Amino acid sequence: MGYGGGSLFARGIPMADLAAVISADAGRVVLDATNLEGDFEFLLEWDPLPLAERQTNRTSLFVALEEQLGLRLQADRAAVQIIRVDSIQRPSAD
């Protein structure tokens, strides 16, 4: 899998992995609700910049998912697991 700069090339990944990878660019947690099983190979290209700053003719991630992969992101509420770090300390010298 190769990912970055508005491009995602994947070979042999499940839909749950796609959802996890695009969460950062989507700006929220993306969960797989496709019920598609198996591994997939695809190339997804979008413009990661806000509309006012775009310098390419690429579309947003949301439009690219629908046009290129036939997938649609739908806003919903769901319980998600989070990790909370209360404090952190340097390890002591042994």
Question: How would you characterize this protein structure?
Answer:
By secondary structure, the protein is of the alpha+beta class. The protein has one domain (2-69). The chain contains 2 helices and 3 strands; from the N terminus they run E-E-H-E-H. It has a 3-stranded antiparallel beta sheet with strand order 1-2-3. A hairpin with a 3-residue loop joins strand 1 and strand 2. The model has no long low-confidence stretch (mean pLDDT 87).
Features:
3-stranded antiparallel beta sheet; 22% helix; 2 helices; 94 residues
Total count of helical runs of at least 4 residues: 2
- Give the DSSP E fraction (strand runs of 2 or more residues): 15-25%
- Succession of helices and strands: EEHEH
Can you tell me the number of structural domains? 1
CA radius of gyration: 17 Å
Coarse structural class: alpha+beta
Spatial arrangement of strands, main beta sheet: 1-2-3
Q: Got a strand count?
A: 3
What proportion of the residues is helical, as a percent range?
Answer: 10-25%
Overall residue-averaged pLDDT value: 87
Low-confidence runs (pLDDT<50, min 5 residues)? none
Oligomerization state: single chain
Largest sheet: 3 strands, antiparallel
- What is the approximate shape? extended
Termini separation comes to 40 Å
Quick structural summary:
The protein is α+β, with helices and mostly antiparallel strands.
Any chance you could write out the topology, listing elements then pairs?
Elements (H helix, E strand, L loop, with lengths): L1 E2 L3 E7 L1 H12 L13 E6 L15 H9 L25
Antiparallel strand pairs: 1-2, 2-3
